[in-house]
Amino acid sequence: EAQVTQNPRYLITVTGKKLTVTCSQNMNHEYMSWYRQDPGLGLRQIYYSMNVEVTDKGDVPEGYKVSRKEKRNFPLILESPSPNQTSLYFCASSLGVGQGGGELFFGEGSRLTVL
Amino acid sequence: DAKTTQPPSMDCAEGRAANLPCNHSTISGNEYVYWYRQIHSQGPQYIIHGLKNNETNEMASLIITEDRKSSTLILPHATLRDTAVYYCIVRVGVSYNTDKLIFGTGTRLQVFP
Questions:
Q1: Roughly how many angstroms between the first and final C-alpha of chain A, as a whole number?
Q2: pLDDT the model gives residue A41
């Protein structure tokens, strides 16, 4: 089954404790991306990757890091989380080429709370 | 620098057509229009996309104006399950140097009995 898998789905952590949210897709997609969603602000793009070893900033990259060492995985790293990073996070992937990049497949979301 | 603008909310009676507008006046010639919807806090779900021509699938129809500066998503017979936030985005894909996507806040569609 084609899917994007995020882990963990729920996490409560404390300020400054490094954490990684993993994202994996099984569709051989070139494009992967991370979004955060906060009440009233819609979906905002954090980082995206157009292929292995190619990443770029979205609209709200501050406080986050990403890596794309292999095609299927695109982890989101919070080196020193702060309370303003409390949010619902979504990972998504798509083919990337043709038809404007193809439809985005989204993960189920990871709800992160930073105390 | 929003690429699309949508009304924040709309209502629709169950069984009637829901017409959701989207303005993308700065769209470039190689950008596609994509529509997604999000039910509660689930991951957004793809609905339909198009470049120039009108498109239809089992979920919806997409009408793109001739100048491509706006589009309308049509849910022909809205049901209560169509209550969601609908996002319109424009996208060119990774064939070019950037594939930054701006979703905005979308349109909250409320379907009522």
A1: 36
A2: 87
